[in-house]
Amino acid sequence: MEHPFSVYVLFAFLSLLSFSSAEFADDIGLARSNLPSVQAEKLIRELNLFPKHDLNVINGRDYAPQPKKLVEKPLRFPNLLGSGVPVEDLGHHAGYYNIEHSHAARMFYFFFESRNSKKDPIVIWLTGGPGCSSELAMFYENGPFTIADNLTLAWNEYGWDQASNLLYVDQPTGTGFSYTSDRRDIRHNEEGVSNDLYDFLQAFFAEHPEFAENDFYITGESYAGHYIPAFAARVHRGNKANEGIHINLKGFAIGNGLTDPAIQYKAYTDYALDMGIITKSAYNRIKKVVPVCETAIKLCGTDGTISCVASYFVCNTIFSSIMALAGDTNYYDIRKKCEGSLCYDFSNMEKFLNEKSVRNALGVGDMDFVSCSPTVYQAMLVDWMRNLEVGIPALLEDGVNLLVYAGEYDLICNWLGNSRWVHAMEWSGQQQFVASPEVPFEVDGSEAGVLKSHGALSFLKVHDAGHMVPMDQPKASLEMLRRWTQGKLSEVPSDSGKSIAEM
């Protein structure tokens, strides 16, 4: 039970933000446009996305559960250029999983077999938001294809299916093509999210036993910095308890993620000052909110509800105040500017997935595609400020590898905050990790990043990249995945070839 005085203090602060004098607001430089509904809408519009609905909840329509837990079909996208390969040889699949511990939820997924070897690892990718479809990454970051303006698909030379058997899942429920007919299936915390994903894996490997012994890795970015550690811990716990099919979990990778909010929100002002986004005087003003944010996060703890929502409001004044001064700077990549409300144009994805021929290929019928769900975003507010770092040391101690990577020009989940929580994490190898040298991460003879590693833990700062590393540095991100899953992340390939400058 939450301490009523603690909640009172937080709401008193919130009231102060909302109704304080202009002098006080000016003094700490606070912006007030951080309501979750406003933030969710802003997130969607910045990507040039316009989902018809806020959530995939089906009311008054007959979408009866299938008798099988998992219903999957071979996939051949229309408008795919230059394949000339039978669908059976491509090994592409799309399907629905009837979520076992739900009232009426179905989870949509894609599965792309490796272009290299079926013995390659199974890699699952989770997009953040929270509430954004993993198809964003599939078509614009590391999937097998890219979308042209005429809505044709071309092969992605640096798709992660070059080095892995690749899974994309629309989650939590209500995101993408995943849906329910019962609002009780909307998830609010990592327990619900990770249990759904774990149950999906059990059904997936039951359907694909030929892959059950492959190495398994969990990857993703942004708010998946919450999903990924919780999911990894759930898989590890299931393995230890001999629940169902053993999943050969080898590692998990977080890209520009939100994992330890107390440390990462504190880093906002430092990163913004270092990169010239704010002045020293603005830094000093905005910094006044940091201690209040830290207190709010402590009150949230692991079981908080009201205090967790309150901490979201308090802490996000730090970020929104920085952005109020940053103007049209793209907070996903501070090298770029946003034009009006548009920071990226991902609209071709929505157009493509709304085509009848594509829907027929996917087997989704007239199901709406919710590219990003404001409702899912707001449902996860009680989860936002929780610290997901706490479960990671136990995984490291048992030899499950963690890679944290971050593009250096991302503000919203910046490399500095990620580096700080990774260095602060207490585990048996902490001192050795902190003392380990930084070494160049080389691709084609040129430095693509700076790597620090010890034992099961690695941190990679990626050069010339923003929030979406696989989109900004596709070749480097594929090399990162390949070497990491092979246990060779810190090695310089002997056949590195020409340098980038020579190409």
From TrEMBL:
InterPro entries, per database record: AB_hydrolase_fold, Peptidase_S10, Ser_caboxypep_his_AS, Ser_caboxypep_ser_AS
Domain of life of the organism encoding this protein: Eukaryota
Subcellular location: Secreted
Entry EC number(s): 3.4.16.-
Gene Ontology cellular-component terms listed: extracellular region; vacuole
Signal peptide start and end residues: 1-22
Assigned keywords, A-Z: Carboxypeptidase, Disulfide bond, Glycoprotein, Hydrolase, Protease, Secreted, Signal
Family annotation (Pfam families): Peptidase_S10
Record bears the keyword Ligase: no
Family per record: Belongs to the peptidase S10 family.
Biological role: Probable carboxypeptidase.
Protein name: Carboxypeptidase
Organism: Juglans regia (English walnut)
Underlying gene: LOC109003284
